[in-house]
TrEMBL record:
Its main location: mitochondrion. One of its GO terms (cellular component) is mitochondrial inner membrane. SUPFAM superfamilies: Ctag/Cox11. It is a single-pass membrane protein. Keywords: Membrane, Transmembrane, Transmembrane helix. The lineage of its organism: Eukaryota, Metazoa, Ecdysozoa, Arthropoda, Hexapoda. It is found in: Mitochondrion inner membrane. This is Cytochrome c oxidase assembly protein COX11, mitochondrial. The keyword Phosphoprotein does not apply. It comes from Schizaphis graminum. The gene is Cox11.
Length: 169
C-alpha cells in the first residue's frame, strides 16, 4: 500500500486524465517491448501467469494484456496483488487505465479467470533523456493470499502498515 500511495519501487503513475488518453498520439518512431511476469507468495496456492510473455507498444498507444489465475483447491481463496515496473525510472511513464491490482479477487474451487491490464506508456517517455536507451520494460505482479482477519482493516487508511503485514506472510 505504501508503494501504491507513493509510487515507490517502480509503481505506476495513477494520475490519468481521460482527456489525455483520448487526445494523445502514438509516437511510432519508438517501440517499447513490455515484458510480463507473475509470481505468488509462498502461502498463495493459486497458479498465476501472464497469457503473453511480451508485447510491443509505441508510447502514446493503448495496449491490453492478460494474466490468468487458477485456484486448484476445493475451497475459495481470496487474493490481492501488488505490482512493480522495472526499470524503476520507467514506472512514472507506465499508466494503467484498468487493472486488477490492489483489489481483492476471490476464486472459487477450481475456478480460473483471465484478468486484464489496459495501459499506455506516456508519450513524454520519448523526450526524457533518462529513457533514451531503455526500450524494454517489465511489468510484474505478485499475488498474496488475503487473510480473513485482515479484511476489516482495509477500510481504515491509517492501517496501511498492518495491511501489508497481513498479506506479506
Amino acid at each position: 500500500m505504501f508503494c501504491q500511495a507513493f509510487s515507490y519501487g517502480g509503481t505506476l503513475n495513477h494520475n490519468i486524465e481521460d482527456s489525455k488518453v483520448e487526445t494523445m498520439k502514438p509516437n511510432r518512431n519508438r517501440e517499447i517491448k513490455v515484458h510480463f511476469t507473475a509470481d505468488t507468495s509462498s502461502s498463495m496456492q493459486w497458479s498465476f501467469k501472464p497469457l503473453q510473455n511480451e508485447i510491443r507498444v509505441a508510447p502514446g498507444e493503448t495496449a491490453l494484456a492478460f494474466y490468468t489465475a487458477k485456484n486448484p483447491l476445493d475451497k475459495p481463496i481470496t487474493g490481492i496483488s501488488t505490482y512493480n515496473v522495472v526499470p524503476f525510472e520507467a514506472g512514472q511513464y507506465f499508466n494503467k487505465i484498468q487493472c486488477f491490482c490492489f483489489e481483492e479477487q476471490q476464486l472459487n474451487p477450481n475456478e480460473e479467470v483471465d484478468m486484464p491490464v489496459f495501459f499506455f506508456i506516456d508519450p513524454e517517455y520519448t523526450t526524457d533523456p533518462k529513457m533514451e536507451n531503455i526500450d524494454d520494460i517489465t511489468l510484474s505482479y505478485t499475488f498474496f493470499e488475503a487473510k480473513q482477519d485482515c479484511l476489516a482493516i482495509l477500510t481504515d487508511p491509517g492501517k496501511q502498515v498492518v495491511i501489508m503485514s497481513c498479506y506479506l506472510q
